[in-house]
User: Fold this.
Amino acid sequence: MSQHPAPVREFTLRGVLLGALITLAFTAANVYLGLKVGLTFASSIPAAVISMALLYRFKDSNILENNLVQSQASAAGTLSSVIFVLPGLLMLGLWTGFPFWQTALICAAGGTLGVLYTVPLRRVMVVQSPHLPYPEGVAAAEVLRVGEAQRQQTQSGQGGSARSGLRELGWGTGLAALFGLFSSGFRVLGDAINLWLPVGHTAFRVAAGFSPALLAAGYLMGAAAGVAMLVGVVLCWGIVVPWLTAQAVPEVGQAVTAVAMQLWGSKVRFMGAGVIGISALWTVVTLARPILQAMRHQPARSGETAAAPAGDTDRDMPRSWMLIVGTAALAVLFGVVNYFVALHMPELSGGARYALAALCVAFAAVFGFLVAAACGYMAGLVGSSASPISGIGIIATVLMGLSLLALHALVPAFENSVTGKLGVALVLFLVASILAMAAISNDNLQDLKTGYLVGATPWRQQVVLIIGCVVGALVIPPVLELLYNAYGFIGALPREGMDASQALAAPQATLMTQIANGIFKGNLDWTMLGLGVLVGVVAIVIDMALRKSGRGALPPLAVGLGLYLPPTIGMTLFLGAMLGLVIQRGIRRRGEHKGKEWVAAAEERGLLLASGLIVGESLVGLLLAALIGFSGSDAPLALVGADFMPAMWLGLVAFVALCAYFRRRVLR
Assistant:
């Protein structure tokens, strides 16, 4: 842990304002990316680089101020996880848009509780747990240290450039933006290759997308998760879908490919949900013991430590502050849930409505705390990006749905209200708050690890993260409204005549809506879910065996995602992971001659380039959404029509060139 001999300015107004601006941009980018492919990106490291570049000209700026900026901005990548649920309310037909205050308050209250839940776990899980690697937290600390060293060298006239990291991020952002402009904007480049191989009464599908953001996500994900994703894709489109298609009886005039797509959407995706659910449950079970140990060793009073006090670097938010903020967050959550119930269940009496809202908030608060502890520990083990937040959402959806069903059966006052579409809507609304708690806690301990390594003050980080939650919560509703009106969601288009092929998939929201609907209607495909659970158990056993033997790993969650996500997503993630494997081998091989400093610089270049690719594509997507919304045209910048045949092959060539450039720049 870094120590600072003299007090330095850490919490500043300019830092808070800069963190808010970065949060605005990254929240918007994450909302778009999450709705398109079901993935979000971690924003801590890009935020740290941008913060260093913009604060560079202020001679009194320092590493601690930069750290608070990235802590605040990191809320962008995490609070955006509520988009995995909220679009389901439009798919149900309950909402016709995203009500600003309902959406903002559910995000802000859940995110604030997520911050508070992880405060008691910081000392045990961050300070006293050296076995937890916190990969993204350590990486962010290294970026901050390098930037601080370069700034000091420049000010002392020794050379160096504090903008080298921003340059790499800029190259990635620019290339991805250019690719997205020619692909999604001008439509000159195709966005995927999609081939069907018919065999008798069935068909096999081979597909891959040309997305720089997905390529970068796969690169950051790692080889083990990439291979597991490929296993899921092959299992889905090479075995399960062809077998189900061969058994199905197509409608008159229905093509085999249409049957395959229908079966994948209605059956095989539930199998993937089963794999994701059991994988997340297994993760929580394996973490139960360390979570209980962390709670048992938590000091009884604020500031109390087992050793001598370490000053500001070991001072958490005071318990009195936590009580005040937590009570306010729970009150806001109760108010917004009560309003939701009153608006959509007007037949309930006042007492019954308050009781239902209180029970729902109690469930969300208790389950949210357990999820926060599990997700915080998972962040330490595998990093924020690899934690199964969507799997946690599936578990929450099932448990909340079953709880409301039991309430409907046991309490006569709720017999005619907590059922059907309204029951599903209430489940989704509450799961949104639970996901906000889970996602923020997943990120908070990662940020606290960064702060611990650079000598920051924990309570200041916790305060600015709450500020980031509030800012992000105010951004999410208008961005969701903009994207919905521009593209629509699959199953929920705002206007007639819109191009359904351009609709955002919102995959997790679709899945959780289907699961909640199936629970209340009693027609949930438990067979496919059960088969998915069985596949997940097999994947867990294989993963344990591989890890025990030291031969690698097979993350079961990634297998489930390969089954659930479209192959144009899964295969691109796999390609990105393989690109990362090739680059890592090249770094190790060249590092034997060039030394450790070159290796560290190359790894940082790869990390920043990948982050830039994600940010660039996401921001171009958001810009195009604004153009579509204002123009009313589905393709306002298109230079060619949808029948432009060379587009797919031009896209393939451009994508391969991008991969080659990525490798060359990292290994230069």
Q: What stands out?
A: Confidence is low (pLDDT under 50) at residues 305-310.
